Amino acid sequence: DKLRLDPPEFTVKNYACQRRTPLKHNNTHLTHALELLAESAAFGENEGRSVAFTRAASVLKTLPRSVQRIEELRGLPCLGEHSLRVIKEILEYGASQEVESTRQSEQYQAMKALTGIFGVGVKTADRWYREGVRRPSDLMDSEQKLNQAQQAGLQHYKDLNTCVSKAEADAIGVIVDQAVQAVLPGAQITLTGGFRRGKESGHDVDFLITHPEEGKEEGLMPKVVNWLDTQVGQKGQNSYLESKDGPARPPSNMDRFERCFSIFKLESQSCSPPEREKSHQWKAVRVDLVVSPFSQFAFAVLGWTGSKLFERDLRRYAGQVKNMSLNSHSLFDSHQRCFLRATSEEEIFSLLGLEYIPACDRNA
Ligand code: 8DG
Ligand code: MN
Ligand code: MN
């Protein structure tokens, strides 16, 4: 029983928002495996199981060095029996049978490919899977009804499943800024999402738009979209391809910002102009635009910077530990029954009694 008396190898706080998670860490062989199981659980619409694997992976991301033996994980939070079993197997044999058979399974591969289509969620992909659809190409000559977003998603499937580089994100930023300034001078745009957390590539580019004069931002999104739309036409010019509006009446757990999930046409960054002339090289890129009133801006930046698990734990921590309710609009203190104002992310962390975690350490 000497083992039991040894102090734990690592100490890790319970909630992702209480700890620093840098982008680069030392246990990718383990976290990739757990995240694949999380993804597969999500494909099966088992959210609890999916979050559990995601949490386990996230804890490993905060460890200062690579795990060698399962005993080193003693006392760490969020590592359930199943996750520990998978980790142990990988540490001992180099791979987990469950992970590898999931990776190879027809269902996992089909769901991965189908949910990779812009505008296709787990529910739709699962229905198609049960009807025999396996690959995006199966949809081209099938009877399946596709909405406009899904048609665009299918059309640009390859581009949209190619990572967006930081350079491409910056180039998109220039276009968005141009559009926004044209319809509302003085508006401010902020890069959010993974790129704000320091990622060098991403699946899309996320922007938050606001204006220092409260109210000026109202109705901005349709104007921006319209401006981008009318830029289409000139050959070889950056332009706007497609958009998917948020639901007309968003469910209560979604925020109420004006938003637009869109696809941009971005001219190739690497080609010289004469070469571009010949081949019309361009790439379709997913862009998320969100408009926030200035008074809610700090909450919106915090809410749209991610990671998804970091956001989930921020809200859970607010509710469970502080009896407060946090979303990307506001912070409500249920005990005092009032909204707490904040003009910066630092202030919000402080109101929650949390140490400030900079965006680069929110890669939970
Ligand atoms: P990636 O694109 O590089 O893959 O990573 P990411 O930038 O972290 O992921 P994302 O899917 O673009 O999401 C960025 C953040 O936006 C994430 O923290 C969650 C947040 N977000 C949505 N949808 C919604 C929503 O409907 N409401 C709120 N408040 N936040 C949302 O993706
Ligand atoms: Mn993103
Ligand atoms: Mn996004």
Automatic annotation (TrEMBL):
Catalytic activity, reaction form: DNA(n) + a 2'-deoxyribonucleoside 5'-triphosphate = DNA(n+1) + diphosphate
Predominant subcellular localization, coarse grouping: nucleus
Residues binding Mg(2+): D204, D206, D288
Cited SMART domains: POLXc (SM00483)
Matches recorded under InterPro entries: DNA-dir_DNA_pol_X, DNA/RNApol_mu, DNA_pol-X_BS, DNA_pol_B_palm_palm, DNA_pol_lambd_fingers_domain, DNA_pol_lamdba_lyase_dom_sf, DNA_Pol_thumb_sf, DNA_pol_X
Recorded family membership: Belongs to the DNA polymerase type-X family.
Localisation per UniProt entry: Nucleus
Highest taxon, organism lineage: Eukaryota
Top EC group: transferase
Keyword set, alphabetical order: DNA recombination, Magnesium, Metal-binding, Nucleotidyltransferase, Nucleus, Phosphoprotein, Transferase
Cited function: Gap-filling polymerase involved in repair of DNA double-strand breaks by non-homologous end joining (NHEJ). Participates in immunoglobulin (Ig) light chain gene rearrangement in V(D)J recombination.
GO molecular function per UniProt: DNA binding; DNA-directed DNA polymerase activity; metal ion binding
Record's GO cellular component terms: nucleus
Name of the protein: DNA-directed DNA/RNA polymerase mu
PANTHER family in UniProt: DNA POLYMERASE TYPE-X FAMILY MEMBER (PTHR11276), DNA-DIRECTED DNA_RNA POLYMERASE MU (PTHR11276:SF24)
